[in-house]
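hey so i finally got around to running the thing on that chain from the lab meeting. sorry it took forever, my laptop kept dying and i had to restart like 3 times. anyway pasting the input first so we r on the same page abt which one it is
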Amino acid sequence: MREISWVLAGTGFIFAMTTLGAAMVFFFGKNMKPIYQTIFLGFAAGVMIAASVFGLLVPAIDNATSSGSIGWLPAAIGFVLGVLFLLGLDKTIPHLHPNLNLREGPPSSAKRSTLLVFAVTLHNIPEGMAVGLSFALAAQNPADTSLYFAAIALALGIGIQNFPEGAAVSLPLRQEGMKKSRAFTIGMLSGVVEPLFGFLMVFLASFIQPIMPYMLSFAAGAMLYVVVEELIPEAHLGEHSNIGTISVMAGFLLMMILDVALS
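ok and heres what got predicted. didnt touch it at all, straight out
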């Protein structure tokens, strides 16, 4: 029951941050400067990279080692499976990359806003899984309080990057002429999948305890796929590529500090 409360708090926080980010549509006009999008996307990418390494891969290796396994092997297998999972979704679900104006997946007659929601859903799935798995791991090892602090750091990091991520959904829609209220709603709903998958992981935790290292690294692989496939390329469009790079570094640094400070 305790882990349910923690996951409720963690996933509720990251969803609230997505909502706050989407609300930026009420403060920016239609012609938002591209540099803001670059900063938002780069920062989100940096946080997700650090969260994948410090919040998921390192605990996966430690968990595997403590159970007598070869530490890197479950982490490597889970990582590859996570990448393949997102790659499969990327190929089978129609979605839209707004900044590139690029449609991917099978042909679809769905509206642009629907395809955008599909796109964001794809990379919010591993984020929800990551938070749920982190708190599930902490609940399975109550004597190790550092795991709870690590899970809190992960939730904080993902929540912080969800703020610019929510803005990165709603602001392009507003720029295309969509009403502010509708753009906000779509941006907010893009984060709903995170609490859903967070609770799913907690529900399955008792069944997946023996394969927890695989699941943690699975979420890491899925998150890094999103970063490399979408966030970093879109953060380096146009003439503000250096700003995008600095934003990635800033996001990574913040998440690293959070993880070390709270562990």
